[in-house]
Design a protein that fits this description.
The protein is of the alpha/beta class and 846 residues long. It contains 41 helices and 18 strands. The strands form 4 sheets. It has a 7-stranded parallel sheet, with helices on both faces. A 6-stranded mixed sheet has the order 10-12-13-14-11-15, with helices on both faces.
C-alpha cells in the first residue's frame, strides 16, 4: 500500500469524507437503451439524432466541433428543440441498472454524496441494497432523517424534471450565478471536509469554478483535502492536484469501490458517534490536547488574536478574578444525573470571554469531565445526544462561543433527560444579544456572569506576574509597583495589549492605516467594511465561504515571512486581520472604532444589501445555522436602528429590496412588519405579519406581534369607533394567547400580559370616557400573574397602572398591603420612567 492509499484509508477510517461523483462513476451501468453514455459519447449521439440534413456540410462540420454544452445550447436556442432534447436525455439516463461492483458503494456509510450525473444510478444502488437515501433534487431542501445518506443532484435529476436539467451553456451559467442550497452546501463542505472525487474529469464548468475557489482560498481557509480517483488523469489535472495539496489515485471506479469494501469498515457505536460529533462541528478537548505536541509555543494572544487552546495549555491566559470566580462556580455546582445546567458568560467586545471559556474548559477536563467544544455552523442536538449516550464518562462539559442565537437550542438541551449523565454547558455572548435572547434561558437552571475589560489593582498584579513570566514586560517600568500602576492606568485589556504590542505611538499609526484603507484598494476596503459590519452586529466571524464568494484576495501573506517584500495592501491585511478555523475577524477594537467613524450610512446600507442577498441561499426557514444567525443579526429592525443608526425609512427601503430573496422566510416578514409598525403603517404591518404567520402558523411570537399591531393601531386611530373595533380585535387575540393552556406558550405568556396591560392603559389614557372599573380590576389580575416573575419592567408597568387609577379616582379598587409594589409605586413620584412603549423582548427572541 503506497502513501496515497494509506492516507485515503486514514481519511475513510478517521473522518467523515464526502463523495463527489462524475460521469465516470456510471461506467458499465445501463438501462433499456443500452449502456449509459459518458460526456463525449452523449455528445456524438445527440449530434447524430438532432443535426439532420437541414444543415449543409460546412455547418455540420462546425457543429461537430462543439462541446456538449455548446451543442445543447445550439439545439435549445437555434433549433428550438429543448423539450425534445431533454426527453431524449431522460430516456438515456432513467431507470439505470448498476453493474455488480456498483453495489459495493454501500459498504461504507457515506454521509453526503454530490453528483453532476442526472441518472438515477445511486438511487437504484441504495434501493437494491435496502438502504435509506434522501435525494436532494428539488429547489427546497428536504429534511434529512437521522443517519440517512444525502444525495445532492447538482445538475438535475431524471426523476424530477420540473427542476430542470443542466446541459447547455446558459444552464451552467445560471447554475453558478444564481446559486442554490446544493451548491452552497458543496462550497462549505469543500472548505471544511475531505472530499473524494470519483469519475469527475473537472470538465464541468461550475465544478471547475468551485475547485478554483477552493484553490484561491489557500491553505489558510481549507480544512479538508480533495482526493481524486481517475484512471487516466491528464497532465493538467495532475499538476492542479499537486498544487492544491490533493491526493491522486489512478484507479477505476471499480478499483476504488473494492478498496473501500475491503476495509470492512464497521465502527463501534462510540467511534461512529464520535465521527458524527466531529462532522457536526463538536470537538473533544482530549483530542485537541493530544495534538498539542509542540515544545515551543509563542502566543499571539497579547497581539489581539483570539484565544487558542494552545494559549490555555501553555499557560498564557491571565487568571483574573472573574476566571477564578468561574472556576469556583464550576466546583460548587452539583448537577444530578440526568440533569443539566448552564453558565452564561457575557460581556462587550474584547473582555476575554473566549479566554475564560477555554480556561474553564481545561479546568473541567482536569476535574474529570469529558469536555466538548462546539465550533460548527449547525447545532446538531442529535449528534451531541448520541455521543453523550455512548461515552463512558458521567460528567460532560459543553463549551459554546457566541451562543445567544443558540439559546433556544440550549433550552431544549436543558430540558432533556440525560439518563445517568450530567451536563454542564458554558456559553459566551456579547451583552446586547445576551439580554435580547436570554428569554430562552429564564426558567431553566442557569447562571449568568458578566465580564468587563476594566483592570483593577488586583487584576493588574495578576497581569504583571503573567507578563513577567512570559517575558512581556519590556514596555513597562522596571520597578514592580510602578509597572502594576502603569498596567492599571491602561484601564482596559485592549489598551494594554495595543501599547504592549505596538508601542504608545500605535494609535497614530492605526489612524494612518485607516486612511490608507478607506482611500485605497476598493476590494480591501469592502472586506474591511464587511468585517466592521460583522463586528458591530456582534457576529463572531466572517465565514470563509462568504469570503471566497465575494473576494479574490491572496491570504498567503499570513504565511509569508519576508515582510519586506509585501505591498501596503498586504500589510493592511496581515496587521489587522486574523484567520480562525471558521473565517476572518478584525483583531483590534481600536481599529474597528476608527474605521466605523469613516464609513458612511450609505456605504453601510449598500453593503448590508450585498451581504444579505449573498447569504440568502444559505438561509432556510427551519435550519438553525450560523447563516441564520448572520441573517437575523443583519436584518433585525432593532439592531439596524440602534447599532447602525440607520433611519427607519432607510431600513424599510432595505427590506423592500430584499423581498425576492427572503419571501419564504417568516423572520423577514416579521421584521418588515415591525419596521412598518414603527412608522405607524399598521395596515401594511398587519399584511406582512400575516405573511409570516402563513409560513410559521404556530409561532407564538408572530401571533403576539399581530395582536400587538391591532392594539398599537387602535392607540393611534383618531376615529373612536374604528379604534374600539381594532382594540377589541387585538385584545381578543392577545387574551387567547394569555389564556392558552399549551405548554410551549407558558413562558411567553408573561410578555403578552405586559404588552396587553401597557396598551390598555394607553387606550384608557387616550379615551378616559371609556374607562371601565371592572376592566381595571381585570388588569390587576393579569399584573398579579407576573408580579413575582423576574421582569425588570414590571415596576414601571405597575407605576403606569397606578397613575391611571389615581388620575381617574379609582384607587379604591386596590386593597393595599404594606410594602407591596402597588403601595410603593403609588408613593414613588419620581419621573424617571423607562420608556417601554417599544420594548418587546418576546419578538426580539424570535
Amino acid at each position: 500500500m503506497d502513501a496515497n492509499e494509506k492516507e485515503l484509508k486514514s481519511i475513510l477510517v478517521e473522518s467523515t469524507p464526502i463523495l463527489f461523483l462524475g460521469a465516470g462513476f456510471s461506467i458499465d451501468s445501463k438501462n433499456d437503451m443500452g449502456k449509459l453514455p459518458k460526456g463525449d459519447g452523449l455528445r456524438k449521439d445527440i449530434f447524430d439524432i438532432f443535426i439532420d440534413d437541414s444543415f449543409n456540410e460546412s455547418e455540420k462540420k462546425e457543429i461537430r466541433e462543439y462541446n456538449l454544452q455548446e451543442l445543447c445550447q445550439h439545439i435549445y436556442v437555434s433549433m428550438q428543440k429543448k423539450d425534445e432534447l431533454q426527453k431524449y436525455i431522460v430516456s438515456r439516463f432513467k431507470d439505470s441498472k448498476p453493474a455488480g461492483f456498483h453495489l459495493l458503494l454501500n459498504r461504507y456509510p457515506w454521509k453526503k454524496i454530490y453528483t453532476v450525473n442526472v441518472d438515477d444510478l445511486v438511487e437504484n444502488i441504495y434501493k437494491t441494497n435496502g438502504i435509506e437515501l434522501i435525494v436532494q433534487n428539488k429547489k427546497d431542501e428536504k429534511k434529512c432523517i437521522d443517519d440517512a445518506t444525502e444525495l445532492f443532484k447538482l445538475h438535475g435529476c431524471v426523476n424530477e424534471l420540473e427542476e430542470g436539467l443542466v446541459f447547455s451553456q446558459s444552464e451552467y451559467t445560471n447554475l453558478i450565478s444564481k446559486r442554490n442550497f446544493k451548491l452552497d452546501s458543496l462550497t462549505t463542505d469543500m472548505l471544511k471536509q475531505n472530499i473524494i472525487f470519483v469519475g469527475a474529469s473537472m470538465d464541468e464548468s461550475d465544478i471547475d469554478f468551485y475547485i478554483s475557489k477552493y484553490e484561491d482560498a489557500g491553505f489558510q481557509l481549507r480544512k479538508g483535502k480533495l482526493i481524486f480517483i481517475d484512471p487516466f488523469p491528464n497532465l493538467k489535472l495532475k499538476t492542479r492536484i499537486k498544487a492544491m495539496g490533493g491526493i491522486l489515485l489512478e484507479w477505476t471506479t471499480e478499483q476504488f469501490l473494492k478498496f473501500v469494501s475491503k476495509l470492512n469498515y464497521n465502527p463501534t457505536e462510540l467511534e461512529a458517534s464520535k465521527k458524527a460529533l466531529n462532522y457536526a462541528g463538536f470537538y473533544l478537548y482530549r483530542d485537541i490536547l493530544a495534538m498539542n505536541n509542540r515544545e515551543v509555543y509563542e502566543s499571539k494572544l497579547y497581539e489581539g488574536y483570539a484565544c487558542k487552546w494552545d494559549d490555555v495549555i501553555d499557560d498564557w491566559v491571565f487568571e483574573t478574578e472573574s476566571i477564578k470566580k468561574l472556576e469556583y462556580l464550576c466546583k460548587s455546582i452539583i448537577i444530578e444525573p440526568g440533569k443539566s445546567y448552564c453558565i452564561s458568560i457575557f460581556g462587550n467586545r474584547f473582555t476575554g470571554k473566549d479566554c475564560a471559556l477555554k480556561y474553564v474548559g481545561a479546568f473541567l477536563y482536569k476535574s474529570g469531565y469529558t469536555v466538548i467544544e462546539f465550533k460548527g455552523r449547525f447545532f446538531d442536538i442529535r449528534a451531541l445526544k448520541r455521543y453523550i449516550e455512548s461515552c463512558p464518562q458521567e460528567k460532560i462539559g459543553l463549551l459554546v462561543e457566541d451562543a445567544p442565537f443558540l439559546y433556544r437550542m440550549i433550552e431544549t438541551i436543558l430540558q432533556m433527560n440525560w439518563g445517568e449523565k450530567s451536563l454542564l454547558i458554558i456559553t459566551t455572548s456579547r451583552t446586547y444579544y445576551h439580554f435580547k435572547k436570554r428569554y430562552y434561558l429564564e426558567g431553566n437552571p442557569y447562571y449568568e456572569i458578566e465580564l468587563t475589560d476594566k483592570i483593577n489593582n488586583e487584576n493588574a498584579k495578576i497581569i504583571y506576574n503573567k507578563l513577567k513570566q512570559k517575558g512581556y514586560t519590556g514596555a513597562l517600568p522596571r520597578e514592580e509597583k510602578k509597572a502594576i500602576t502603569e498596567i492599571q492606568k491602561k484601564d482596559s485589556f485592549v489598551n494594554l495589549f495595543s501599547d504592549l504590542t505596538y508601542g504608545k505611538g500605535f494609535r497614530k499609526r492605526l489612524n494612518n492605516a485607516t486612511e490608507n484603507i478607506v482611500d485605497g484598494d476598493s476590494n480591501i476596503f469592502n472586506l474591511y467594511l464587511d468585517l466592521v459590519i460583522f463586528d458591530r452586529a456582534d457576529l463572531g466571524y466572517f465565514p470563509s465561504e462568504l469570503f471566497i464568494q465575494q473576494y479574490d484576495i491572496d491570504l498567503s501573506v499570513f504565511f509569508n515571512r519576508n515582510y519586506k517584500d509585501i505591498n501596503s495592501d498586504q500589510k493592511n491585511i496581515i496587521d489587522f486581520l486574523r484567520i480562525d478555523e471558521n473565517g476572518l475577524v478584525l483583531k483590534n477594537r481600536l481599529f474597528v472604532d476608527m474605521l466605523w467613524k469613516r464609513i458612511s450610512k450609505k456605504q453601510i446600507l449598500d453593503e448590508l444589501f450585498v451581504l444579505l442577498s449573498n447569504i440568502s441561499s444559505y438561509v432556510s426557514e427551519n435550519a438553525n445555522t450560523y447563516w441564520r444567525i448572520i441573517f437575523e443579526s443583519l436584518l433585525k429592525e432593532d439592531a439596524l436602528s440602534k447599532k447602525f443608526q440607520i433611519k427607519k425609512s432607510d431600513i424599510l427601503k432595505l427590506y423592500y429590496k430584499l423581498k425576492d430573496y427572503y419571501s419564504e422566510i417568516s423572520y423577514y416578514w416579521l421584521q418588515l412588519g415591525i419596521a412598518e409598525q414603527s412608522q405607524k403603517e399598521y395596515s401594511k404591518a398587519l399584511n406582512h405579519l400575516l405573511m409570516a404567520q402563513k409560513i410559521k402558523p404556530r409561532a407564538y411570537q408572530i401571533h403576539h406581534a399581530i395582536a400587538r399591531n391591532y392594539l398599537k393601531h387602535a392607540n393611534e386611530e383618531k376615529n373612536i369607533d374604528i379604534a374600539l373595533e381594532l382594540f377589541s380585535m387585538g385584545e381578543k387575540r392577545m387574551l387567547e394567547l394569555i389564556n392558552s393552556r399549551e405548554d410551549y406558550k407558558t413562558k411567553a405568556r408573561n410578555f403578552s400580559i405586559h404588552c396587553f396591560v401597557h396598551e390598555k392603559i394607553r387606550f384608557y389614557n387616550k379615551h378616559p370616557e371609556l374607562i371601565d372599573k371592572r376592566e381595571c380590576k381585570k388588569m390587576k389580575v393579569y399584573i398579579d400573574m407576573i408580579i413575582n416573575e423576574k421582569d425588570s419592567f414590571v415596576y414601571q408597568l405597575i407605576k403606569e397602572y397606578m397613575c391611571l387609577l389615581e388620575k381617574n379616582d379609582l384607587l379604591n379598587i386596590i386593597s393595599f398591603k404594606p410594602n407591596d409594589l402597588y403601595f410603593i409605586t403609588l408613593s414613588d413620584k419620581s419621573k424617571n420612567q423607562v420608556h417601554i412603549d417599544n420594548y418587546d423582548i418576546l419578538v426580539d427572541s424570535y
